[in-house]
Amino acid sequence: MANKSAFVILNAVPPKGSLGDEARTAISQHDIEICPFQITQRMAFVHAVTAGLSVQEYEPGSKAADEIKSLYKWVLKQLK
To answer: pLDDT (tens digit, 9 = 90+) per residue, 19-29?
Structure first.
Protein backbone atom coordinates (compact mmCIF):
# COMPACT_ATOMS: atom_id res chain seq x y z
CA MET A 1 0.00 0.00 0.00
CA ALA A 2 2.80 2.40 0.81
CA ASN A 3 4.65 1.28 -2.31
CA LYS A 4 7.75 0.58 -0.21
CA SER A 5 9.69 -2.63 0.12
CA ALA A 6 9.87 -4.42 3.44
CA PHE A 7 13.08 -5.54 5.10
CA VAL A 8 14.11 -7.62 8.07
CA ILE A 9 16.29 -6.36 10.90
CA LEU A 10 17.82 -9.03 13.12
CA ASN A 11 17.54 -7.96 16.76
CA ALA A 12 18.90 -9.42 20.01
CA VAL A 13 21.29 -11.70 18.15
CA PRO A 14 23.60 -13.55 20.56
CA PRO A 15 27.18 -12.26 20.25
CA LYS A 16 28.56 -15.81 20.00
CA GLY A 17 27.34 -18.73 17.99
CA SER A 18 25.69 -19.03 14.63
CA LEU A 19 22.10 -17.98 15.34
CA GLY A 20 22.42 -14.76 13.30
CA ASP A 21 23.80 -16.64 10.31
CA GLU A 22 21.12 -19.30 10.63
CA ALA A 23 18.40 -16.64 10.71
CA ARG A 24 19.85 -14.93 7.63
CA THR A 25 19.92 -18.25 5.77
CA ALA A 26 16.31 -19.03 6.68
CA ILE A 27 15.08 -15.54 5.76
CA SER A 28 17.01 -15.52 2.49
CA GLN A 29 14.65 -18.27 1.27
CA HIS A 30 11.95 -15.60 1.01
CA ASP A 31 11.76 -12.58 -1.24
CA ILE A 32 12.60 -9.98 1.39
CA GLU A 33 15.68 -7.86 1.97
CA ILE A 34 17.74 -8.41 5.09
CA CYS A 35 19.45 -5.45 6.72
CA PRO A 36 23.24 -5.86 6.53
CA PHE A 37 23.46 -4.74 10.16
CA GLN A 38 22.15 -6.61 13.18
CA ILE A 39 21.49 -5.61 16.75
CA THR A 40 23.48 -7.85 19.07
CA GLN A 41 22.58 -8.72 22.66
CA ARG A 42 24.78 -6.35 24.61
CA MET A 43 24.75 -5.29 28.24
CA ALA A 44 24.93 -1.64 27.16
CA PHE A 45 21.34 -1.96 25.90
CA VAL A 46 20.18 -3.41 29.23
CA HIS A 47 21.94 -0.73 31.29
CA ALA A 48 20.70 2.07 29.02
CA VAL A 49 17.07 0.97 29.31
CA THR A 50 17.40 0.62 33.08
CA ALA A 51 18.77 4.17 33.25
CA GLY A 52 16.03 5.49 30.95
CA LEU A 53 18.55 6.45 28.29
CA SER A 54 19.33 5.53 24.74
CA VAL A 55 22.46 3.49 24.26
CA GLN A 56 24.04 6.52 22.55
CA GLU A 57 23.46 8.54 25.72
CA TYR A 58 24.51 5.79 28.09
CA GLU A 59 27.65 4.58 26.32
CA PRO A 60 28.27 6.68 23.17
CA GLY A 61 31.48 4.96 22.06
CA SER A 62 30.24 1.42 22.53
CA LYS A 63 29.66 -1.32 19.97
CA ALA A 64 25.96 -1.11 20.81
CA ALA A 65 25.87 2.60 19.95
CA ASP A 66 27.76 1.91 16.72
CA GLU A 67 25.23 -0.76 15.76
CA ILE A 68 22.32 1.63 16.26
CA LYS A 69 24.08 4.38 14.32
CA SER A 70 24.80 2.05 11.39
CA LEU A 71 21.24 0.74 11.44
CA TYR A 72 19.81 4.26 11.50
CA LYS A 73 21.87 5.37 8.51
CA TRP A 74 20.92 2.25 6.53
CA VAL A 75 17.20 2.58 7.30
CA LEU A 76 17.24 6.24 6.23
CA LYS A 77 18.65 5.22 2.85
CA GLN A 78 15.92 2.59 2.47
CA LEU A 79 13.18 5.13 3.10
CA LYS A 80 14.29 7.50 0.36
So the answer is: 999 999 999 99
